[in-house]
From TrEMBL:
It comes from Rhizobium alvei. Residues 2-231, 246-489 form the ABC transporter domain. SMART domains: AAA (SM00382). PANTHER family: CARBOHYDRATE TRANSPORT ATP-BINDING PROTEIN MG119-RELATED (PTHR43790), GUANOSINE IMPORT ATP-BINDING PROTEIN NUPO (PTHR43790:SF4). The lineage of its organism: Bacteria, Pseudomonadati, Pseudomonadota, Alphaproteobacteria, Hyphomicrobiales. Keywords: ATP-binding, Nucleotide-binding. Pfam families: ABC_tran. Belongs to the ABC transporter superfamily. This is ABC transporter ATP-binding protein. GO terms for molecular function: ATP binding.
Length: 489
């Protein structure tokens, strides 16, 4: 792949990106979330068409117009989110895609068993997908792609949802395929997991290839971390933190799917921002769900001002001053179809005493919404306008207006400026900084290192569901961040 460019809605995702794969190798394609790894491989798999650049397969021009074209050329991709019909059996799912290769369920089952035996995987073609484990579903996807004739197998974040034992078994399988002359691409941000199994490594950053097809054995760990993160990450000047009492304490918190043998432990004090940096899929979503009351932890403790809240529902935690800005503002914060005024009043209604009838004061709701629109500069908003009609930045301001209320003592902010333009991002960060200056405590969880460094007084790195390291902002260095993000001590 040479000089590949791709933009979505005018926003560049790839710029002069390249990738070279050889037969008989396992090749790690590494970079932070949003670096362009999956986009580049989606082009190779015929899902996207490039805006510019060339592709060649065995030296011949290769221009797939669809995944079917790519499959006929011998390229297959297993996506991070599996594309299986859960109510169907494994064989029925295979039959959907095999076409003339299998004219009956019996033929599909036979082909699956033969291929599974040939490559050393185990699968029961008669099992319904809904009854399979994540690892078994992944095997079904891989076998389906191989049955379609894939000689180049692209695996997108293949170990993200697997246990340590399952991950090792999968990676050993990729080496067996390479030994048989096939080629495997591992799209990943977990370099430590794939380093021992990959022959070569390519690193991407901000849509560009910054290291191309380097032999894994010849690349230093420190160099990899620097290339992944980049050399432009610097900490912004901020007022010195004057932390107060411990507002939130988490001790040895464990949740389902956690890979690390250690739980999450951290302390958050009044008047400070603790930035939790990490590549997506390392336990951030589960940690937020445990803190906000959406997920019950397997073990460990969570306390607010010394009082345990492990078993308290979200409503009780809000009453103690906990507020949340979720990573997806609509999936976990706002209701698209409701008006701005209705979204702003939702949590206030939830604080009312259960069982008591209460009529909404629409006039007061409208006036409060007007004040919030003015105070937070929510452009294009009106109290009776549906929230889904607002831009992303202005919808985020509605969420801020509701969560940064006078009762807020602890703010869990997960990627608060994700998807926003420069101006909207600056507003969001300024609002959070002002709340902290007034005494609030903020746990900022983000994959954007610039956001972490712009707001945080302390920085912690999460990797594999545990805290890999923590430093005061003045002691944070590029090598330290890069090394821990890549999975190295």
């Amino acid at each position: 792949m040479l000089g590949i460019a791709k933009a979505f809605d005018g926003k560049p995702a790839l710029h002069h990106a390249g990738f070279t794969l050889s037969w008989g190798e396992v090749h790690a394609l590494v970079g932070e979330n949003g670096a362009g790894k999956s986009t580049l491989m989606n082009i190779a798999a015929g899902i996207y068409a490039p805006d510019a650049g060339q592709q060649r397969l065995d030296g011949i021009a290769y221009t797939p117009n669809s995944p079917a074209d790519a499959a006929r050329a011998g390229i297959g991709m297993v996506h991070q989110h599996f594309r299986l019909v859960e109510s169907f059996t494994v064989a029925e799912n295979a039959l959907l895609t095999l076409g003339a290769q299998a004219r009956s369920l019996k033929e599909a089952s036979m082909l699956l068993r033969q291929k599974a035996e040939a490559v050393g995987l185990t699968i029961d073609p008669a099992r319904k997908v809904s009854t399979l484990s994540i690892a078994e579903r992944q095997r079904a996807e891989i076998l389906k792609v191989l049955l379609l004739g894939a000689r180049i197998l692209i695996l997108d974040e293949p170990t993200a949802v697997l246990t340590e034992e399952e991950s090792r078994a999968l990676l050993e399988f990729t080496r067996r395929l390479a030994d048989q002359g096939l080629a495997v691409v591992l799209i990943t941000h977990k370099l430590k997991e794939v380093a021992d199994f990959s022959h070569k490594i390519t690193i991407m950053r901000h849509g560009q290839t910054v290291l191309a097809s380097a032999p894994m054995a010849e690349v230093q760990e420190a160099e990899i971390g620097t290339l992944i993160v980049g050399e432009t990450v610097t900490a912004s000047e901020r007022p010195a933190s004057q932390p107060g009492d411990i507002r939130l304490a988490v001790k040895d918190l464990r949740f389902s799917g956690q890979k690390s043998r250690e739980g999450v432990s951290l302390e958050l004090r009044a008047g400070e921002v603790l930035g939790l940096a990490g590549v997506g899929g390392n336990g951030q979503e589960e940690l937020v769900a445990c803190l906000s009351g959406g997920l019950k932890p397997v073990s460990g403790t969570i306390t607010i001002a010394g009082e345990r809240i492990d078993d308290l529902p979200p409503k009780a935690r809000r009453a103690m001053g906990l507020r949340l800005i979720p990573a997806d503002r609509f999936a976990g914060g706002l209701i698209r179809e409701m008006t701005v005024a209705e979204n702003l009043v939702m949590t206030e209604i939830a604080r009312e005493v259960p069982g008591r009838l209460r009529l909404l004061d629409r006039k007061k709701m409208t006036e409060n919404a007007r004040q919030a629109i003015t105070h937070f500069d929510i452009r294009g908003a009106a109290p009776d306008r549906r929230t889904e009609l607002l831009s992303g930045g202005n919808a985020q301001k509605v969420l801020l207006a509701r969560e940064l209320d006078p009762g807020m003592k602890i703010l869990i902010a997960h990627s608060p400026s994700r998807g926003l333009d420069v101006k909207a991002s600056a507003f969001v960060r300024s609002a959070i900084a002002k709340a902290v200056e007034q005494g609030a405590a903020c746990l900022l969880i983000s994959e954007d290192l610039q956001e972490i460094l712009a707001l945080s007084h302390r920085v912690a790195i999460i990797n594999g569901g545990a805290i890999a390291g923590e430093r005061a902002i003045a002691d944070v260095t590029l090598d330290w961040i890069g090394g821990l993000l890549a999975g190295h001590a």
